[in-house]
Amino acid sequence: MSVPRNPPVCSKCFKVNHTKYNCPEGRELINLDPQYTVRSSTEMCYNCAEDGHKRENCPLPPNPPEFQSALRRKGVEAKRRAGVIPGFKKDGLEEQKRLQRQQWQKEGRNIPLLLIEKELDDVMIWLEEFKRKTMSLRALRILQSEQDDDDAVVISRQTEVKAAEAELRFFLPRIKEIMNIAKGRRCDLNYLEVSFLESYVGSIEEIRTELVNFIMPEARSLANN
Description:
- Helix 3 runs antiparallel to helix 4 (152-185) and helix 3 runs parallel beside helix 5.
- The model is unreliable at 28-41, 82-88, 185-202 and 214-225 (pLDDT under 50).
- The protein has helices at residues 70-83, 91-106, 113-146, 152-185, 194-214, 217-224; strands at 28-29, 38-39.
- The chain has 6 helices and 2 strands.
- A hairpin with an 8-residue loop joins strand 1 (28-29) and strand 2 (38-39).
- The chain has 2 domains: 20-82, no CATH class; 110-224.
- The chain has a two-stranded antiparallel sheet with strand order 1-2.
- It is rod-shaped, with a radius of gyration of 37 Å.
- Keywords: ATP-binding, Helicase, Hydrolase, Metal-binding, Nucleotide-binding, Zinc, Zinc-finger.
- GO terms for molecular function: helicase activity; nucleic acid binding; zinc ion binding.
- It comes from Folsomia candida (Springtail).
């Protein structure tokens, strides 16, 4: 005697004698209450990424080269478009920071320390290059005094240092301004770590030391003024 079994019930249309895989309603999802009938999105083939049919009914052979990973390419392209800022120019970021600093100065507001720290780093890098040029020139002058060599190289290096001295005249007012800003803001920086403050003040003193100890004697008077 066979044991009676309940007929299969479709999880899509909730009718009996078939399953969701051979449901005559296709991709139509019907709630128990007819007023909440919901239709799913259009069928899409995972073989060619075209709408209107499924992979098993695709007219193209499985995984055609021209459509291979089509869905992945579409997803990557959509992600790229979503993550790109239209018209963004990397060079414009520094200009934006410069204009922001000018606006803060006009409004009498304090410039954030992070922006000042970035300028200090730039100045220190420039001073290292300036130190290298001046020390090289001094070495060439010593060699020239000891040996009767052609002074064309020395003259060329002197030209480089003179150009660096002119650039130093441009740097000095900004360096003094940075120092004054940092000194004026020192009492207002209670939200910063003490260790960071000490290292920050130390970096200002490093700039002063670099200016006094490593620039050309002809330009040393500029640093002391």
